[in-house]
Amino acid sequence: MVVAFSILGYPCCIIPTRFTTMTKPYSTIGLKTYFEFPGRIPPERVTLSQADFFLEGTGVRLPDVGHTFLYGYKTSRFLLGSAISRAMDHNHEFCLVNAEARIGEWDPNKIRLETLPITRFVNLPGRANKGLLDDLREKWVGILQRHGLSPDDDGFPRKPSLNMHLLGELIKIPPYDQLTALAYHVPTTVGVANLVTVFDKHNLTLVDANTIHPVDVDLVFS
Description:
Distance between the termini: 19 Å
Strand content: 25-35%
Shape: globular
Number of domains: 1
Strand order of the largest sheet: 1-4-11-2
Number of helices: 4
Largest sheet: 4 strands, mixed
Number of strands: 11
Order of helices and strands: EEEEEHEHEHHEEEE
């Protein structure tokens, strides 16, 4: 068993690779993570804790809830390219892991505060309307202030934040307690990346290592 890229020291559980089913229709979002390994053939079983996503030295702290993945194509490609180069520097092989998570109903329009419990997911900031962004900002400022942090130094949700470890507090506040996942931007050492945190392991419908070799991937959830 291999544990890769652990940066969080919180109690966790492990989710095995599997498909899940639902009785009602739902939408899914695509997710990506990765690991590297020595030799030419990956191990038959890999346990993945939180990938680091090139955050060392940035001051970014990822959420202490759920599991965080790469989201989208534009910002994922340069980070994945850097991860491949790093694996080569370590004389390791690189393996991409594709995953899917179920959300609520897909809405082609910008997500509003009242539709959040229906969509159960929003990609910040571009897919949220002004009312939702304003409400998120109000809640986030309150959380920052409770922790003695200056809101002037943190522009979430409209700008990347260093304090995403506080996301666990936000999702306890209605209607954000209805979210199954949230996507947002953070600065990394190789550029701004679009990440997504999935809060409940049971919302993962697929975890698949991109290799011809059979690999059972376990994802660690905080």
